[in-house]
Write a structure and sequence with these properties.
By secondary structure, the chain is mainly β. It contains no helices and twelve strands. The strands form five sheets. Strands 6-1-12 form a three-stranded antiparallel beta sheet, with no helix packed on it. The two termini are 22 Å apart.
Length: 152
């Protein structure tokens, strides 16, 4: 599994000091399990130029179909939120310091936008893949905050 971070609409570089991915708990501030530290070209940190993307190195994380994932980013300096998916259909939490490996989050703010995260790239053993590209239907509109398209 890899992630893609985007600074597509940023006027300045975005510094990411650390990033992790794992299996999400039932709520945005619940404990994450199977946590994996992400690297970019073998380094824990990366600077994403304005208009650019960054793809993480692959990590081994087994996920079940329709599993909920948690991606945590540590931004070591004040960073304007320039690139986001405004209605992600779930809650993102914002807090102080590097909480990428924290078991209990110190939450200062929440948003329903997905900040800087643009893609999850998953290698699969499957013989087929379904990709959804579209409008508000693919973003869970009408199914409730934090619930997927199947009411999960």
């Amino acid at each position: 599994m890899r992630i893609v971070l985007s600074n597509a609409f940023g006027a300045d570089a975005v510094d990411v000091g650390a990033a992790t991915i794992g299996l999400a708990g039932a709520s945005a501030d619940a404990a994450v399990t199977d946590l994996r530290k992400l690297t970019f070209g073998g380094k824990a940190d990366i600077r994403i130029a304005p208009g650019a993307n960054a793809i993480s190195d692959a990590v081994d994380l087994q996920i079940a179909p329709l599993a909920r994932l948690a991606v945590s980013l540590f931004l070591p300096r004040d960073t304007p939120i320039s690139t986001l998916h405004w209605h992600a259909g779930d809650v993102s939490v914002i807090g102080p310091g590097n909480q990428t490996t924290a078991t209990q989050l110190n939450v200062e703010n929440t948003t329903t936008g997905r900040l800087f995260l643009s893609q999850l790239l998953v290698d699969t053993q499957s013989h087929g893949t379904v990709v959804t590209i579209g409008d508000s239907i693919t973003d869970n509109t009408g199914s409730g905050q934090g619930r997927g398209p199947h009411g999960r």
